[in-house]
Write a structure and sequence with these properties.
By secondary structure, the chain is of the alpha/beta class. It is 43% helix and 15% strand. It is built from twelve helices and eight strands. Bound molecules: phosphoenolpyruvate (PEP).
Length: 252
């Protein structure tokens, strides 16, 4: 069974006290309308320990926004998956387009990060998607196929079932542009077909595929109503409890 998931990616926003207030706001606003949806927040590294404590006992789960692939060692400024796991975090975003664009993240490092996360018992939220020029030249299917082949398909069926995929067209991230519900469904269905061809239908049908890219309270319902869309990875609209809660409620 595919899980319904709404995950907020806070990026480099919210200091500790602001982040804890946001978690309180989300917790206190969760009602029966949000039941059945896995709710995830992804604060900056420095707030993760307190975020886990603040979320404990509630429906809110915590994710890191990145990780390093090595266990430990001389990697100044980096944080390993073992460290993230040790403080009670359950998820880690891997391969976000901003990491690919600004921090030279590539298929080789993404593959290692996914392996490291799985080895430590973290759930990777693996992001892929095409840039504007690739969409405009009709290469979006080809691009996500290559990303899936190079970054995910080395996993066994048992391993890949533990991954959450986030399709995030780069041209829609933080731009206010959104893929239409039909464009989202078309590519989510394609990703699921790639999973089916590689791992079989049962595995493909157990993996949640989230949409990310300017998902807001006013467009979430239509996007989430599509057959192969299992939720969203939300950037800007995850920074206000009211908006984030409205997106979660869009499942009903
Ligand atoms: C994201 O960064 O994952 C994202 C989807 O951002 P936004 O919702 O702001 O487009």
């Amino acid at each position: 069974m595919r899980k319904k998931i709404v995950a907020g990616n806070w990026k480099m926003n919210k200091n500790l006290s602001e982040g804890l207030s946001l978690i309180e706001g989300i917790k206190s606003g969760l009602t029966a309308a949000h039941k059945g949806v896995d709710v995830i927040v992804s604060p900056p590294y420095v707030s993760l320990t307190e975020a886990v404590k603040a979320a404990a006992g509630s429906a809110v789960k915590v994710s890191a926004q990145n990780c390093h692939q090595e266990e430990n060692g001389a990697y100044t400024g980096e944080i390993s998956t073992g460290m993230i796991k040790a403080i009670g975090v359950e998820y880690v975003i891997i391969g976000h387009s901003e990491r690919r664009q600004y921090f030279n993240e590539n298929s080789a490092s993404i593959t290692k990060k996914i392996n490291s996360a799985l080895a430590k018992g973290l759930t990777p939220i693996y992001c892929n998607g095409e840039v504007k020029e690739e969409r405009e030249s009709g290469k979006h299917f080809e691009v996500v196929k290559r990303q899936m082949n190079d970054e995910l398909f080395h996993l066994s069926a048992e391993e890949v079932k533990k991954v959450v995929i986030a399709y995030e067209p780069v041209w829609a991230i933080g731009t206010g542009l959104t893929a239409s519900p039909e464009q989202a469904q078309e590519i989510h269905a394609y990703l699921r077909k790639l999973l089916t061809d590689k791992y079989g239908e049962a595995v493909a049908e157990s993996i949640s595929i989230l949409y990310g890219g300017s998902c807001k309270p006013d467009n979430a319902k239509e996007i989430f109503s599509k057959k192969d869309v299992d939720g969203g990875l939300i950037g800007g609209a995850a920074l206000k409890a009211e908006d984030f809660l409205a997106i979660i409620a869009a499942f009903n």
